[in-house]
Specification:
Number of helices: 10
Order of helices and strands: EEEEEEEHEHHHHHHHHH
Shape: globular
Radius of gyration: 18 Å
Structural class: alpha+beta
Oligomer: single chain
Amino acid sequence: MYAERVSLLAGAVVWRVGPPRGGQGRVLPDGCMDLLWDDGALLVAGPDTRAHLTGDAPGVRAGVRFAPGTAPGLLGVPAHELRDRRVALADLWPATAVRRLAAEAAAARDPADGLEAVALRIAADAPAPDPLLTRLVGALDAGRPVAATADELGLGARQLHRRSLAAFGYGPKTLGRVLRLQRALRLARAGTPFARTAAESGFADQAHLARDVRELTGLPLRDLLAP
């Protein structure tokens, strides 16, 4: 069973999932990166451009999902280098430091709580998030066009694309598309009819919504919402 809560780390979410009951899990693109606990190992989940299918390994897995654009500053690695990848933290950081953090996480009663403590420790030594990235996410999540957003932020198109790659793992158009998908899913899960969901989340029509959902998640919207 999947459960999540708001983290003590600003903008982050702490989640845990128990042993699967059969089949594969499906992690959908959301513009975020995660610090993962998987059977005692610390991993980093890069930003996804498509659904990531999880395995059926036993045991509890946990994660801290960072707000879009914040993880690269905490981890010291550009997001595009981890796009669509799951990487051991020890491949990015010195092994001794990772072992120390893994031991700290393992000492907690709940791996999710231990992992949150590790994330808070990492954040304490990291620079503050770039407020421009927060404004960029807010504008694109509100459905603002990329060109207008660049003008509002005082950035040229190439500079905006370059900064987006480093912070989010992909350019602003892809980020906007992913955030639009998440807006649509929130509406659809709340019972909003698909045609109205498409209109309110910024799609041209219901057919456009259906195409994007299938391309980004691998499933039709109705199947994706099935319990």
